[in-house]
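Sample pair:
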Amino acid sequence: MNKIEEMKKIRDEILVLKGSPLYEYRVMNNFLPVIGEGSHDAKMMFVGEAPGRNEAKTGRPFCGAAGKVLDQLLEHINVDRKSVYVTNIVKDRPPENRDPTVMEIEVYGPFLNRQIEIIKPRVIVALGRYAMGYIMKKFELDLALEPISKAHGKSYSTQIVWKDSSRKPIDLDIVVQYHPCVAVYNPNNLPNLKKDFEILKTY
């Protein structure tokens, strides 16, 4: 399978994921699962927490107020959004935009893992504390975990052997950022987010 077919397979599986605690809520509200969008060959992959209302209505990640902030942050570092891949850990909207639960992260996490394998990014940008916790633990950086108030704007290096590769370890950096929504709730936070994003110019 090529990358497009592999991503479609993930989408098709999530569409009928009746074992998800968010499945009935999605169907009841005529929402769509939000799989992700962008380049399947991206060197930079952004992982948020879960879709909001606008995202669930359109099936597109970061297309609401937080998405506008993300667009500004990418523009600040001269990165075309189409050149990166943007997704969330949880692919369905939790009610009332609440935080994702441990069970929801466990249900949807394997789909994110597959997306990472498909894209094979050089850097994964974790947006928010839930994404930070999941990504850091996935890549065995547990010991480096610290509160996001200290971790934001930092890079953590590791190595990975992609499943379908020649078994040669590849460098992978995890960059932690505040979730763009912090600038939605308080626009005064935007300059600090822009400053944090400047670390991504390295890549």
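Strands lie at 37-38, 44-48, 85-88, 123-127, 154-160, 170-177.
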